[in-house]
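Fold this complex.
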Amino acid sequence: MKIKERLYKWIFTILAFSSLIFLVGIVIILFNEALPTFKKVKVLEFIFGKSWYPTYNPPEFGILPLILASIWVSIGAMLICVPLGVGSALYLNEIAGYRQKAILKPLIEILAGIPSIVYGFFGMAILAPFLQDLLHLPIGLCAFTASITLGIMATPTVCSIAEDALSYVPKSFREASFAVGANRWQTLTQVVIPAAGSGISTAIILGVSRALGETMTVLMVAGGAAVIPHSIFEPVRPMTAAIAAEMGEAPVGGTHYHALFAIALILFLTTFVFNIVAELISRRFRIKLGLSG
Amino acid sequence: MNRLNKWLLLCLLVLCMGTLSYAETPYGVDKKKIIIEGSTTVLPIAQAAAETFMRQNPDTDITVRGGGSGVGIASFIDGTCDIACASRSIKPEEVEKATVNHRDPQAHVIAMDGICIIVNSANQISSLSKKQVADIYTGKISNWSAVGGDNQKIVVISRDSSSGTFEAFGTLVLGGQRVRPDAVMQASNQAVASTVSRTPGAIGYAGLGYVSIEVKALSIDGVTPSKETVLGNQYPITRPLFMYTNGKPAGLVRDFIEFVMSQEGQKIVDEQGFVALK
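Structure:
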């Protein structure tokens, strides 16, 4: 009996640690494949170079246009998904009745599960031609279209997590607030939102991470011009799209191949920083509320 | 507190292990083996032909690798591949190196590749010179009025740099000049054609097999692109695709080349969007 119990313990320990092993494995390979880039290209030239011509002779590996495109598109997506997502989370938690919530919440969660290629197709076939006609753009595939598509895509993620965070605020907080005479609005803005602040921040950060890491949609919708964007109506090529479009035929072991891994590494480190920031914010809020843990 | 520490620990771990490397595991097979390597343009033909060939001859094992024409020919010279695929003919210095290594490259033209320049069907232009197309793609011309069309901004649509069509276009039309950086990038011939069909000011390029009635294929230097003009080499954006073998092919290499040149092999060429020789 004791052996059996120990066996089960080991099996579940291994399962629990397997995701850590995958993570470490991915990170090792990422570093291993990315670092050779910097034998050929200087780090600063790589990050701040303005021309991305990896297949020409001589090649140029400047990823500033790709970085700016990613930032550009993610900020645009954030401007859409944060008000929409947080707004609908507040509605669901504070205003919606029990039955409305019972219908709306699962529906929003289904929206989060729609494959990104479907959003991409929607953006490419419907939204881009529509915006092209509406705004008289030379071409509908641009940063603006990508931002809208990504924003819609990230909304359910933001909404769902923010709503969870709001619902975790202890009932006693509201009761205490009402007891000292605060009205509903004051309770919401001064007690509930600060209390759920860490969760809402996490929701926003995860939403932006999703927009930043999304590949298929931007590949289909953003237009893909590797140029520093001057307006939101120009085609751009975010980092993920560059990796997806070029990895297929980049000669394995060549500088182009390693450079694409280096882009992936930058993306990874960005999300890593996002996670740390989320953790710091959440700690600060917890301390402020006296909820250590 | 604890979670942050864990992240930092993980970060440290990662930095320590970042330089580890891996060894490849070898494997042994007793089948008849050949290795095909080279041009990414020829890759889909070689891949599809190899799959069909192996299905018909289960005792064979054909490995197909990309890498580009130059890589394929270099491997051929070193003797690490049996057939080199190339979307250009072998250069004199490569022939020299091959002779030094006692390799005798023999060219087999296995298909033709023709690239159409396409515009929106509403565009009045129906013909351009190759020079004008190059000027449009490098950014010297950016309005249709400069080539006799309406006063409309030209939306330049190109392919991602990994595409064989992009590579061919770059060599045949641009002569190695860079495509303007603000050109829109699309990931497939099909995507280029559908974007051009929806965008009034657009110009794009695609393999001959992808031209539909929704877009207009331009005549280049006065020649309409078609299978006939490509095969006859009159259409200017045309190139032959090669497979190189060591001397007169023998054994499995001969069987494979013969298969590619057969009716069935040429049907694969056609299916992959290239121009079959028969």
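Confidence is low (pLDDT under 50) at residues 18-29 of chain B.
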